[in-house]
Amino acid sequence: EADIYQTPRYLVIGTGKKITLECSQTMGHDKMYWYQQDPGMELHLIHYSYGVNSTEKGDLSSESTVSRIRTEHFPLTLESARPSHTSQYLCASSGGAPRYGYTFGSGTRLTVV
Amino acid sequence: GNSVTQMEGPVTLSEEAFLTINCTYTATGYPSLFWYVQYPGEGLQLLLKATKADDKGSNKGFEATYRKETTSFHLEKGSVQVSDSAVYFCALRLEGSARQLTFGSGTQLTVLP
Fold first, then answer.
1. Sequence-distant (≥ 6) Cβ neighbours of residue A96 within 8 angstroms
2. B17 in contact with A at a CB cutoff of 8 Å?
3. B3-33 as b/e, with b when 16 or more CB fall inside 10 Å?
């Protein structure tokens, strides 16, 4: 079944640790996105990619980085986690025309203590 | 620029009440329009969509009609259930770039038994 997977679902980690949030999709989509969702629910685009070896920063400045070495994989890395990074991170992908919308993963809830 | 304005929440209704969540948009061009739903602890799921003026999207008893003359895409349901409690996001998508999906700020709906 085609889908998009995020791991871990929940992560509690100490300040200063390096973390990688995983996102993989099996739909062959060329476009992938990372959103940060604040407690007020609003979604902020932090990174996107429209293909292998292509990454761009989104509307919200973020200290995280991303890579796109394979079509299906779009991991997000924080080199040194801080409490201000505590948030919900959502990965999404899309392919083809705008009328198809995005497919979202279930999200990673990150807490930095 | 492109933007989506949603009715502010939270919205609290009794079971079997009628639901309307207002959504208006500003776009340069002719967007596709979407409603996404986010249940507690989950990612976003596509609820319904419409790709051109006067189209009506529908799913799970929810409906929304693409009104070009009023640039609106209001979400309606005739009789809500407790299980409809979630956050609802209106969104638009245009051609032309990887960052195509623009979200509204989300509306929290709580349905009481």
1. none
2. no
3. ebebbebebebeeeeebebbbbbebeeebbb
The predicted-structure confidence for A23-71, as pLDDT tens digits, reads as follows 999 999 999 999 999 877 889 999 999 999 999 998 888 899 999 999 9
Which chain B residues touch A97 with a CB distance below 8 Å?
Answer: 95
Measured from the Cβ of residue B89, the count of other Cβ atoms closer than 10 Å reads 26
Contact yes or no for A43 and B103 at CB 8 A: yes
Count A/B contacts: CB-CB distance under 8 Å. Answer: 68
DSSP string, B46-113: EEEEE-STT-EEEETTEEEE-BTTTTB--EEESS--GGG-EEEEEEEE-SSSS--EEE---EEEEEE-
Q: Is the pLDDT of residue B98 over 70?
A: no
Q: Is A89 on the interface with B (CB under 8 A)?
A: no
